[in-house]
Amino acid sequence: TIICNIDYIILSQTVSIDSIVAYSIIYKISVTVISISTSMLHAVWPFAIEWIMKNDWPKLINIINKYMSIGFFTILCFFAVLTLFQKQVFLLLAPGANLMIEFSTIVLFTIYLIVRVWTDFFTVLVQAINDINNLIFLACFQAIASIALQIVLAQIWGVNGILVGLILSSILTVSWALPLRLKKIKSIGYKNITKGQMTVLPIIIKQKN
Questions:
Q1: C-alpha dihedral sign at 159, 160, 161, 165
Q2: Distances from the Cα of 42 to the Cα of 31, 79, 125, 170, angstroms
Q3: Is 96 exposed, middle or buried (0-12, 13-18, 19+ CB in 10 A)?
Q4: Which of 1 and 60 is assigned the larger pLDDT?
């Protein structure tokens, strides 16, 4: 919980209350965008397992491209709505409050969502083979990097520093490491993955035995 709310803790020490409220509202809107992506991930999960098991990578790559395109289009809508109707959004969600955010903040929120959607898709694909050890390691490293970067950058850029910290912590860790891991799995083939990585799929282990 502390890690999840570290951005608010840092912001409380660096920016005004109005900036925190504006950040909170935009963040909650971004969570809606992420939830759309998450619902697509739940739909992809069973197919991802099947196609990885069969080494049917063309189908997997096709579905990745399809759902990522939908996710990125949703993010584009998010960007357009906030850019064109920022005042109306704040009047609707925070009536009476005089809130505004900089265009650079909207851009950074958009970049954060792109990175998040990209990372979440590859997280699901790596989870499909139950490669938990790598996921835990990367998640811990990302959390440490995220906290450190947010603390430092928020002192310089305020709300934008928080967003830059979130973006960089992903780019420096999971955003490249997970696709690289999946590429390695593709190169060695599913059948050559160790049984320890397949504990989530006991029926497949039994078939191999």
A1: positive
A2: 16, 25, 11, 22
A3: exposed
A4: 60
Helices marked H in the chain = 6-12, 17-53, 57-93, 103-127, 132-157, 159-171, 174-188, 202-208
Q: What is the pLDDT of residues 39-89, one digit of tens each?
A: 888 788 888 888 887 888 888 888 888 888 999 999 999 999 999 999 999
Q: d(Cα 75, Cα 42) in Å, to the nearest integer?
A: 19
Q: Which of 52-61, 90-99, 101-110, 181-190 has the highest mean pLDDT?
A: 101-110
pLDDT attached to residue 189: 67
Q: Which two tokens stand for residue 31?
A: 């969570």
Residues 109, 142, 127, CA angle at the centre, nearest 5°? 95
Q: Say how many C-beta atoms besides its own lie within 10 A of residue 114's C-beta.
A: 18
For residue 59, CA distances in Å to 44, 65, 134 come to 11, 10, 25
Residue 152 near residue 6 (C-beta atoms within 8 A): no
CA atoms of 182 and 193, how far apart (whole Å) = 12
Give the residue carrying structure tokens 């409380």.
12
Cβ contacts of residue 202 below 8 Å, gap of 6+?
Answer: none
Q: What is the mean pLDDT of the chain?
A: 84
> Are the C-beta atoms of residues 89 and 82 closer than 8 Å to each other?
yes
User: CB count, 10 Å around CB of 62?
Assistant: 12
